[in-house]
């Protein structure tokens, strides 16, 4: 790695393959190289690192975990893959942890330098980017739920995701379809109906005459 210039390294990364020479040189002047030891965290779920990490060589795992420390692997990163872009686009904490599986070399591009590569924040392109990031975050949560939570936990998380807060009360406007809920949480309609009835019997939720659902107590979903 030491024999190659930053520009040479940038040119090897598929993410930057369409850049002009001037654009690639600008990125090359801004990145720094960093080496991560086996087992070292590259980014941590729930935090912000304010950088884009591009894997040059090695291998890293993308993981998500619940409050009990149970993990599910979302992806394995190889040469040319990158992480951190979602947090840079929407300014939210990382949705997953990335850990080096072996000694791994990265190029690190800071937030300001990355922002210069993005379209203007008022443009349609940027709005589409933010929308895609929101969908990816939702997909990550769904994968985590299916892998780590039982049906009660998945129903609880889905209800919380659907709810809006009004004057300190969480409410889901409109009828909650048991069939649709079953498709979201990966369970049978009958099982979802039993879970919802149990939550109602315990006073955790209340279904109004118009079908809206009020969440009356804190739902446990992990």
TrEMBL record:
Residues 149-218 form the HTH crp-type domain. Residues 15-135 form the Cyclic nucleotide-binding domain. SUPFAM superfamilies: cAMP-binding domain-like, Winged helix' DNA-binding domain. Transmembrane segments: none annotated. The keyword Zinc does not apply. Keywords: DNA-binding, Transcription, Transcription regulation. The keyword Nucleotide-binding does not apply. It comes from the Bacteria. InterPro entries: cNMP-bd_dom, cNMP-bd_dom_sf, Env_Response_Regulators, HTH_CRP, RmlC-like_jellyroll, Tscrpt_reg_HTH_Crp-type_CS, WH-like_DNA-bd_sf, WH_DNA-bd_sf. This is Crp/Fnr family transcriptional regulator.
